[in-house]
Write a structure and sequence with these properties.
CATH architecture of the largest domain: 2-Layer Sandwich
Strand order of the largest sheet: 12-11-7-10-9-8-15
Structural class: alpha/beta
Distance between the termini: 45 Å
Helix content: 25-40%
Order of helices and strands: EHEHEHEHEHHEHEHHHEHEEEEEEHHHE
Radius of gyration: 21 Å
Strand content: 15-25%
Number of domains: 2
Shape: globular
CATH class of the largest domain: Alpha Beta
Bound molecules: NADP nicotinamide-adenine-dinucleotide phosphate
Length: 399
């Protein structure tokens, strides 16, 4: 089988993360043949580091190359669906960062759209974008690999095996993620990201819950257990009177998120067709480094998966500079005091196994574990949650 040629799209955090995990694989399996970014400088800088031979700012010229079989899309979410459809139409397989898509505004929308466009209309637009990608992928018979790293994280893989070993049912999945806010300037505006903490981060928690119930159903009943409805609340805690009171008192120095028209906190309850619940809490106001956890409350046991801070290694230093530039974990404010650095963040958070599965799936002509259906379902559940949070009512996912 020939070496798979990859074209990277985007040259910053997301692209670097993927490149680090291609680099773990054999060069006979996969080769990075080109990179496309908005500005030539940033593509060139990453190409130099990662030894990528072709650099462009023109996406079409990346798509036109015969030595590129797959495009790996790591650009801001507002470009995702259009870039995916163009790739599929050019006959390229696709690896796509989360979220698949969302609603980013239409001509004539009042601005800022996150404060002024009704969620019911946004939901319709996001669903159309998502379906258009699925349709293009099917029409062109290309593979679509949805980069939901959580479902490849070793703690979640172990959770799947433990669930399989029992005869019990999952009654509740509790999934959470928090940190002190995204570094990307795009994350501040709905028109660039398609939502706030719930879409940007909560998409992982939603993806994990949908995947685990789908998989439980497939293994026990021969068909997935579908999400039926959602009930949600969202908030901007950063601009709350509580935050303001702390600021006036000279406190509140650490949270870096500064949203314009997006939520930075969300709680979503998903009802599944077998009566189980998924309970998701995400927030941009969680100090202490990245926290990502999923707990399965089963009829016959409890399984807790922790993909970030755990006690495989613990450090103490009175001075935050003691361990110098050695990496601890994403978004940790200080290395002073007691800490729990990640021994291998890419492995623990699933990035290594995710890229391995995608390369294998495309080479072997099989579906990846995380494909287009999960990507579309996540968009549908999250936008139903946005509608629920606005109306205060439970919303049916397929309505
Ligand atoms: N799974 C995870 O945990 C995780 C973590 C972080 C990010 N992500 C995802 O990764 C993706 C990228 O995030 P990021 O943080 O890397 O974003 P970012 O810092 O905003 O970088 C976006 C990249 O896209 C490039 N770009 C923008 N417009 C383009 C265009 N028209 N044509 C070609 N390239 C273009 C930019 O080029 P320039 O450099 O020239 O501006 C930049 O390199 C997002 O979908 C995000 O959700 C996932």
């Amino acid at each position: 089988m020939k070496t798979l040629g990859i074209g990277m799209v985007g040259a910053r955090y997301g692209a670097r993360m993927h490149l680090a995990n291609y680099a773990r694989m054999s060069r006979d399996l996969v080769a990075i043949r080109g990179i496309c970014s908005r500005t030539k400088e940033s593509g060139k800088a990453l190409a130099r580091e990662a030894r990528i031979p072709f650099v462009t700012e023109d996406y079409d010229s990346l798509l036109a190359r015969d030595d590129i079989d797959v495009v790996d899309i790591c650009v801001p979410p507002a470009l995702h669906h259009e870039f995916a459809i163009r790739a599929a139409d050019a006959g390229k397989h696709i690896i796509m960062e989360k979220p698949l898509t969302g609603y980013f505004g239409m001509p004539g929308d009042p601005e800022p759209i996150g404060s002024r466009v009704p969620r019911v209309r946004m939901r319709q637009g996001a669903r159309q974008n998502a379906e258009a990608v699925r349709e293009a992928v099917r029409r062109n018979r290309v593979r679509f690999c949805y980069a939901e790293n959580w479902i490849y994280a070793p703690p979640i893989e172990k959770m799947r095996r433990l669930i399989a070993a029992s005869k019990g049912s999952i009654l509740e999945l509790r999934a959470e993620e928090n940190h002190s806010g995204s570094n990307s300037v795009f994350s501040r505006d709905w028109k660039s990201t398609g939502g706030g903490a719930l879409l940007r981060m909560g998409v992982h928690s939603v993806g994990a819950c949908l995947h685990l119930k789908e998989w439980e159903g497939q293994s026990r009943l021969g068909k997935g257990i579908r999400p039926v409805s959602v009930l949600a609340d969202t908030a901007d805690l950063i601009h709350s009177p509580a935050s303001e009171r702390a600021r006036k008192a000279g406190a509140n120095q650490w949270i870096s998120a500064n949203p314009v028209d997006v939520e930075n906190w969300a709680n979503v309850v998903i009802s599944f067709e077998d009566g189980a619940r998924g309970n998701i809490i995400v927030s941009d106001v969680g100090l202490g480094g990245l926290n990502t956890r999923v707990t399965a409350f089963m009829t016959d046991g409890v399984i807790k998966a922790n993909m970030t801070s755990n006690d495989a290694i613990e450090t103490y230093a009175p001075d935050g500079s003691t361990f110098s530039s050695e990496y601890f974990t994403e978004k940790l404010e200080t290395k002073a005091g007691w800490n729990r650095p990640s021994c291998d963040e890419d492995w623990f958070r699933g990035f290594a196994r995710e890229i391995e599965d995608f390369v294998g799936a495309i080479r072997e002509g099989r579906e990846p574990r995380s494909g287009v259906d999960l990507a579309v379902d996540c968009v549908n559940v999250i936008y139903a949650a946005y509608e629920s949070a606005e109306t205060g009512r439970r919303v049916m996912v397929d309505s």
